[in-house]
């Protein structure tokens, strides 16, 4: 994969524990982030704690609650094995080789796999769009202005393309900007405007990318089309929510009515 920052999210430099001599603020931040992400999926697990880089009694107890949930020794210490359990959703999402007949099906399957592992942003140091999932999609970047929907899309396409020894950069520029990608699609003749999509939905194929149009040269959100119906696309999207926001807090599978929304479509056919 070309987008491989996720590898840095899968390990810590040394065992971390309360008052540990080898404690690293960066490692503790990772641990606290995953403890919070675990609680989002496992409500009531008791692993919510501050994300401040300090391995104090609260973090120790949160680790013990995580260890209890996993059925392992409850000592409050995070070694390599415990951290591997903490970050296992991200490892599963990024390191599972997509399967399927051809690139389009592999893109769809990779997208679904990521969503099933619940990619979710966190608020760290009062900044949204933060945490290990966001950094993985955004090549290490995070923070309030780091809208990560395009990073999510490109990570999925990269993962699927790499499984077939293809380079996603042959299709589109490596950019987190919907506008940059949209203009490239226009220049290559790969962008079908929403009006034509409404007239003839058959021009759209699963695995293609939608770009939500604000104006003809301004796009505010993106995602991968999983299936096409008469009126709707089923999609997988990052940085969204149940309302379809372009700055939500998670990746999810959605249904969008392309007859009511201005959804331009970027064809991935040249990479197929």
What does this structure look like?
This protein has 272 residues and is an alpha+beta fold. It folds into 2 domains: 5-86, PGBD-like superfamily/PGBD (Muramoyl-pentapeptide Carboxypeptidase, domain 1, Orthogonal Bundle), CATH 1.10.101; 91-271, endopeptidase fold (from Nostoc punctiforme), CATH 3.90.1720. It has 9 helices and 8 strands. It has helices spanning 25-41, 57-70, 80-86, 88-95, 103-116, 132-137, 149-162, 178-187, 194-199, and strands at residues 122-124, 127-130, 191-192, 209-215, 218-228, 232-240, 250-257, 263-266. The strands form 2 sheets. The chain has a 6-stranded antiparallel sheet with strand order 3-8-4-5-6-7. A two-stranded antiparallel ribbon has the order 1-2. A hairpin with a 2-residue loop joins strand 1 and strand 2. Helix 4 (88-95) packs antiparallel against helix 5 (103-116). The chain is elongated and about 65 Å long. It starts with 24 loop residues before the first helix and ends in a 6-residue tail after the last strand. The mean pLDDT is 97.
Sum up the structure in keywords.
single chain; 272 residues; alpha+beta; Muramoyl-pentapeptide Carboxypeptidase, domain 1; endopeptidase fold (from Nostoc punctiforme); 2 domains; two-stranded antiparallel ribbon; 9 helices; elongated
Question: What does this entry show, briefly?
Answer:
With 272 residues, this protein is α+β, with helices and mostly antiparallel strands. The two termini are 17 Å apart.
